[in-house]
Amino acid sequence: MNRVYLFIVIFLTPLFLSGQQEILKEKLKILGKESSVTNISLDIPVSVEENVFLFGFVHGSQTPQFVDFEILKQLHSQGVRYYAPEVDFSLAELLNQYLANGNEYLLKLITKKYKHRVPQDASVDFYNKWIKIYEFNLRLPESEKIRIIGTDIEVHPESTLTHLAFLYKSRANASPIVDSLKYFRNYDFDSIVVISGKPALKSGKSFGYFFDTEKTKFYNRLKAFYKENPKNTLLSFGQDSIVAKYVLDQEFTRNRDSLIYENWKKHIVPIIKKGEKVYANFGYAHVFQEKINDRKFLGYYLKRNKHFQVKSILGVMSDSEVLDDLKICKDGKIVLKGVAFRKGRYCNYTKSKKLDGDSSKEVMKGVSALKALFKSQITSIDLMKDPIFKEKDWFIDFDKANFPWTTTGSTLDNIQHLIYMRYSQASIPLVLLDE
């Protein structure tokens, strides 16, 4: 998913009605199959002391999305009410809005925009998982409902501005620029797809000059105003000024895991202090509790914080497929500010059997032993109970494209539970269902 494209998609705004689920199912017959996995019991042991559960998995495949929901359900039955998926603060608030109102059009937009965080998981399987979470939450009493917390770095200004727009309540004494947020209190994310950004480069103008949406432009203006007038900006948000400050103070950084950790200290430590427990998911490297190639990921930081008692659950796959890339087909031309671009549309996708964690491009130590031992589609293994893992370094050393990843410590120093998944199919990009 690393090709350089300018991904800007136009979404129309009619309500995404529940009847379209049948249309979705029909299109899935053409694009590929829905996951055939049914309900299972993962039987993940939970001790009294443990208050953080991390699930790390390979992106772009169907079964991990199914397993994520099953873990959430099981942990909820054991008192976990807070769910911290791999999303930023503002996208989490939009997901909380979806859980409150069940607006599937909003969920559809969230799923498509998720490509800015994890392109491989902007999929039908991600979308269906959140419908299941909504339906599960709907049956719960108010005191037991699941709440979403976002701790990742900001990646999508339109989502952030939409969050701020809903956060802001019109006030008579508000700054005029802040008061303009009321005009962005909607779920409209306007954009297009182009084949190449070369015409922009040749023009000497920035990509933003041609492709920034109205929400992105206004967000940049609001951020600039906030930097010059922080007090006046925050006063306009009234009782929500603390949340607004956090949102507006966010800055893009490449030191991702350390910033995620800072967000955990800010948003999750107070919850833990109240006796709550939290379940989170990330790409699998983030859940390792020791250094990988001398690099610290989230699990490393959490393990060393006195407030957290962490259990890392590693999702391992074999004999599986993952979503590799989206195919963009030519769709005529479009002229933007006097410059012609080749317009595109998403028309297909490619799958790979070489990126599932058990292939020549990505090899994890110990998977061959799992293949010999377990034939089921999903197997749940308590590593702490099985003596075979006490002396092993399985599942923590692996190669990615012939580049070795070496993890400090033993298997049990890094992970305590394993979900082994076989025969998972590649995720299907949700955007293709619009075609």
What does this molecule look like?
The longest helix has 15 residues. Helix 2 packs parallel to helix 5, helix 3 runs antiparallel to helix 4 and helix 6 packs across helix 10. With 435 residues, the chain is of the alpha/beta class. The N terminus is likely disordered. It has a domain of 271 residues. The radius of gyration is 22 Å and the shape is globular. The strands form 4 sheets. A 7-stranded mixed β-sheet has the order 4-3-6-2-7-14-11. A 3-stranded antiparallel β-sheet has the order 10-12-13, with no helix packed on it. It has 17 helices and 14 strands.
List the SSEs and their pairings.
Layout: E1 6-7, H1 20-31, E2 52-57, H2 62-76, E3 82-84, H3 89-101, H4 104-113, H5 124-138, E4 147-148, H6 157-167, H7 176-179, E5 193-194, H8 198-203, H9 207-211, H10 214-228, H11 230-235, H12 241-249, H13 256-267, H14 269-273, E6 278-283, H15 298-303, E7 310-318, E8 322-336, E9 339-352, E10 362-364, H16 367-373, E11 378-382, E12 398-400, E13 403-405, H17 411-414, E14 417-422
Helix pairs in contact: 2-5, 3-4, 3-6, 4-5, 6-10
